# Entry
Amino acid sequence: MSTTAARAATAGGRASGGSRAGRPGYVCTECGWTAAKWVGRCGECQTWGSVVEDAGPTAGPRTVATAPTRGPARPITAIDVETARARPTGVGELDRVLGGGLVPGAVVLVAGEPGVGKSTLLLDVAGRVASAGRPVLYVTGEESAGQVRLRAERIGALSPHLLLAAETDLGAVLGHLEATEPELFVLDSVQTVASVQVDGAPGGVGQVREVAAALIAAAKERGIPALLVGHVTKDGSVAGPRTLEHLVDVVCQVEGERHSRLRLIRASKNRYGATDEVGCFDLTDTGVVELPDPSGLFLSTTVHDVPGTCVTVTLEGRRPLAAEIQALVAPTLLSNPRRTTSGLDSSRLAMVLAVLQRRGGVPMGDKDVYASTVGGARVVEPAADLALALAVAGSADDVPVVPGLVAFGEVGLAGEVRAVVGLQRRLAEARRLGFRVAVVPAGALAEASAPEGMTVLEARDVRHAVRLARTPGGQKD
# Structure
């Protein structure tokens, strides 16, 4: 046989024998990315340590129905739902986000930046549940038991039914769960606990996956609601494998500026409720206090009218929040005028300035513009464009808007004022806070009615809105 024929026969034999030639030999367990050789970091999702060897397809199914079942399959109408009812935690704002409270066996992951108040909030929840006579197990892996005790004294969360343990070993944590049989379990945090049966340091991909799976299995088996604190990365996502967010039932994000008292809790995943609710809290020296009515934090206490200010109403989930936008326009000698924002989207400001100059007749090419929100509020909703435009135009012309005025509407590149969602809720919140005049997009009253005692003015474009906002008494021109 010739050399060429031998090579062809060898290649054909390898192909027919199920060789892995031509097929990648490694796969990412997080996103399924494949590679021909092993790498430490996935090239698709950028996760470290998630690339493992691909075992390849098997000849047939390896799992057969030999394990005993938990019980026979029953009609869905015969399932008892009382055990799946949510139980309030005692913190109304957290219950709002969770969908009414904690469901037995539910696992909630609470993530946020360092110092945002995660541990303080969950310790307060644990103290409230324990004060009702229900045993609570609080396991800390980041602090000593004495440090947690000092924080509990500061926020008033001391209770004999609150059991505290400082552990970093997964086996010890599961042992505490079995010995205490609590009605609520809190772990701070999931990245600090490790299993001796898994290689790697605490917080690694393998360790976090093993710890989360074991705790979730224990919570489901015993019907114990669990609150897990999670770290976040630089971009704000939950640290560890992506499967952590898939395994838990609820994922909550705690947000807040470092120099602001306001803390917001949002649910990015919720198997027991909606994901468009927002909980508001105030970070004080005595802990995290819930804010059923946080609108007052975002309004200034100035009693006289100042040019360059305008109030809008934003929607955080289903909740309307009033926010005041302030702008300062000053002449400059620089070739590139400054555009500085705080609490606002810089790209939205640039667009509003361009529309004001081109469509509204307000020159901005030789002026510095500074725009900010009051109280550290974060306003990125397009519905705040009109309030921002009125504030900037008022500062540029040194003319204030009429007293008691709010404005909401999206500004388009053609200068038109576009409709916004939730107009009725915005108007009702503004009237509750005492505002008497509202500037809204044209045609908005066809879908929403004006609250009693409030004058609603419809603006066709930015130029028209500026005239309406400066008309004494809020009369139409």
In short: DSSP finds eleven helices and 21 strands in the chain. The chain has three domains: 23-54, 85-292, 297-474.
